[in-house]
Write a structure and sequence with these properties.
365 residues, alpha+beta, N-terminal domain of MutM-like DNA repair proteins, Helicase, Ruva Protein, domain 3, 2 domains, four-stranded antiparallel beta sheet, 8 helices, elongated, disordered N terminus
């Protein structure tokens, strides 16, 4: 059987215009791929989406607001810090090594990431050596957590010193609050020691997650689209951002610049709830269908939050390590060949934009 895996070579930690790189060496990769004890389904795990991230944030907010970060431990040998070029006043962001371009608040950032085994040039303009985690520790120690919020799939900690500590969990990232006496799991990559004998632990089996420390959160999340559950996101706003869009509706829902936080699980469920075929072009939707889609987005996401998110393959956990329950309420996702809950027609599956796409051939037009 031939299959293709796309993965990051390292866990990156961004601090202003500098970046930590936690390398994934070839031995670790081979051990991961051929460990027979690990189910192959984990290779296709699902990224936490808006409901999962909101559930995590709600748990963290109730537990961590007001706590002080006493220290930070980076639990991965070979952690390195590499410089990033300053932001320039132009309209695109370009990753030099990979050639990707995206808009980013009309600023350009060159991301000169260091891969495992590369040499490191880690001396800042101020002459300080940032090749270890000491500078990060000194900067973040003593700051209190003032607020924790979600933006799209990002988790943002507002700190008392003016910094924002931002996490993106990617496929297998977890943020867990534990006692400082609890055993450190093998996949814990960073530990934030708190002033009350607890720890905030960032675990990530596949090392795809991102951790940022910046003074302006908009530098990271500024390109995201509107929040679909915001009180001020009205039907008229949704109709407005749909105008002029001609692409297929499901990939559009997955576009984080169009609307923030929706991923593959919920895009499938939303379109089923709205009765819209995933291959429909956005500019073919009638006003009644636009309204149905708007309400489906909000209803599906709110129900998933109420049920603490969706856990597949054991990857997603909330801040206390608990699984979600919404997988028990899914109507069509991963239900290929099973009867539609509305009409009994077998659920179909296609691949659209590289993502598994489920729909009812009869109910969704």
């Amino acid at each position: 059987m031939l299959f293709f895996l796309k993965f990051s070579s390292s866990l990156m930690i961004f601090v202003d215009q500098r970046e930590f790189s936690l390398p994934l060496d070839s031995y670790s990769l081979l051990r991961y791929l051929f460990d027979v004890r690990r189910p192959l389904s984990l290779l296709g795990g699902k990224m936490p989406e808006l409901p999962e991230v909101e559930t995590i944030v709600n748990g963290l907010r109730a537990s961590l607001i007001g706590r002080e970060i006493a220290d930070v431990t980076i639990c991965w040998e070979g952690c390195k810090l590499s410089p990033l070029a300053s932001c320039l006043p132009v309209s695109t962001q370009r990753t030099q090594a990979q050639g990707r371009e995206t808009t980013c608040n009309r600023r350009r950032t060159r991301d000169l990431s260091v891969r495992g085994g590369d040499s490191l040039q880690g001396v800042s303009a101020e002459g300080r050596d940032h090749s270890s985690g000491d500078w990060l520790r000194q900067r973040i120690k003593g700051q209190r957590i003032l607020d924790i919020k979600r933006r799209g799939k990002y988790i943002i900690f507002a700190l008392s010193g003016g910094d924002n500590l931002i996490f993106h969990l990617k496929m297998t990232g977890q943020l867990l609050v534990r006692s400082n006496t609890a055993e450190i799991g093998r996949y814990v990559r960073m530990v934030f020691h708190l002033d009350d004998s607890r720890q905030l632990r960032f675990a990530d089996m596949r090392k795809l997650g991102r951790v940022y420390l910046v003074d302006d959160a908009e530098a990271i999340v500024g390109t995201l689209g509107p929040e679909p559950l915001a009180d001020d996101f009205k039907l008229e706003d949704f109709a407005q951002i749909l105008r002029g869009r001609s692409g297929r509706i499901k990939p559009l829902l997955l576009n984080q610049r169009f609307i923030a936080g929706v991923g593959n699980i919920y895009a499938n469920e939303i379109l089923f709830a709205a009765g819209i075929h995933p291959l429909r072009k956005a500019d073919t939707l009638a006003p009644a269908e636009v309204e149905a889609l708007y309400h489906a987005i909000r209803q599906v996401l709110r129900q998933a939050i109420a049920e603490r998110g969706t856990t597949f393959d054991g990857a997603y956990r909330d801040a206390r390590g608990r699984r979600g329950r919404h997988q028990e309420s899914l109507k069509i996702f991963r239900r290929e060949g099973k009867p539609c809950p509305r009409c009994g027609t077998p659920i179909a599956r296609i691949v659209l934009g590289g993502r598994g796409t489920y729909f009812c051939p009869r109910c969704q037009k």
